[in-house]
Structures are given as structure tokens and as C-alpha cells.
Amino acid sequence: MIASSILPCRALPFVLAAALSAAPLLLPEASAQGMSANEAKGTGISGQWRGSRGLVTKGPDGKVIFLFGEVQPSVVCSPLQVCDIELQAGEVVRDVLIGDTVRWKVEPATSGAVGGQAIHLIVKPSEPGLVTSMVVTTSRRTYHIQLKSHQSQYMARVGFEYPEDVSAKFADINARLEASTIPGAGVPAEQLNFGYSVSGSAPWRPTRVYSDGLKTYIQFPRSLSGQDAPVLFVVSGGENRIVNYRMKGNMMVVDYHVDRAVLLSGVGRRQDKITIRRGG
Predict the structure, then answer these.
(1) Could you say which DSSP state residue 110 is in?
(2) Side-chain half-sphere of 176: how many Cα atoms within 13 Å?
(3) pTM given for the model
(4) At residue 27, does pLDDT exceed 50?
């Protein structure tokens, strides 16, 4: 009697399950080495930023200064030595993350008076020939730093210049220059002639008169701005002559090197008159 080779229908599910468990499951495999076009572009951008030279200058006491944000700074350290990375005064460190936590040690230190203390990161490698990266997050910014270890060469002190600090310094310089520049003339005060006398009485009596050798500047009280200004006449040959002038706010700019002039406002008994003389 020959046994049938056809399995009963109720045994079929068990056979299929056994076959599926024995066969490997084929899924799309992500290669650790292969990269997509976007991944290659991204690593290229990052590599260009990390590999750029950037600006490195010398600071006080031999400190190596990097311009923050320009490139990824590369700090070289050495075994049995310490690298001191100084952050901005008043900056509060929140996290320090390092790629190789086994062979690199980072310890905090502080300097300065309370309220303006600077945080120092003291970095020490255990052996030469190491390369890793470090991320430092603070209350003001995030630092991305590359760390390298060398047998004997190292950077003892490292610091940063900050673009906002540079902008603030220029703003301060510009403010001081503007403070030393007399309104209207646009040149420093030492280049102007203030040897003018003003006589007479009027509500708008000039507060200052000066010349740059080509033009004469007559500065009135701020209350004159937006109101009718007095009329200027230059005295020449015993006669009052009209010359070109214009008002800029409370400043009268005369296109003439004035020796003597009069300012008139109103008529009759209500007329106000101011006399200006060069040389007193």
C-alpha cells in the first residue's frame, strides 16, 4: 500500500511557518560606508568648515586667539601638559561633550572676580596621535572644537575673539569720533576756527559759530528747529549782502567764509538783531 504524498490541508500552515523561519529575511540593507548624494554633500560642507584655516592671532601672554564661528578651531595638546581653553567672561557653561572620553580628560576652572568670572576648560590627552571633537554649550553660544594630541607640541592658552565684541568696539570708536566731530562740519573740532563773537539779544541767539575755512556754521538753540529762521546778511563794504545759505535742523550752513554778518528777524520795534564778527 503506497502512502499519499499530499499533505492534509490542516498540516499546510505548519509547513509554511517552518519554511519561513528557516529562510533568511531579505530587507534593504543600509551600508555604513556608502553615502547618498545628500549625505556626501553634507559631509563635504562640514569637512570644508572643519578643514579651513581661518584666522589665528596672538593674544596677551601668548594666548592663541581664534575668531569664533569662522571655522572649527583645532587645539593641539600634549600628554603630561595641559591646554587652557578660556571662554568669554560671564559665560555660563551648560554641557561639555567629548568624542573620546577614555583618552581625553576635560576639567573646569575659573578666573576673575565674582560676577565677571571666565570659565576655563583644562584639556589633557593620555597619549599622542589622538584626534577627537568637543562640543561646549554655554549661555551665549555653542563651541565646536577639534582636539589633537602631539608628542611634544601644544597650545598652552587658547581664547576667542567674538564678532559681536568687534562690532561693539567699532560702535564705541564711531561714537567717540562722532562726539569729537562738531555738527554740520563733519570734521574734528581741532580743524575748525571758533574765533567768532556773537552780540545782541534774541530768543534764537546762536549758541556757537565756527568755520572750516570754506563755510561758516551757525548753530542755533534746538527750539529753532521747525520754526522760521532769521535772515542772514553778510556785511561787506559797509553794506548788507545776501549770500547762499541753508538750514539743516538748527544749523545754518553758509557757503562763505564770514568775517562779519547780521541776523535779522521781525520788523520795526519787534525786530531782533544779532551781530557776528570773526576775531571778536
Answers:
(1) E
(2) 5
(3) 0.53
(4) no
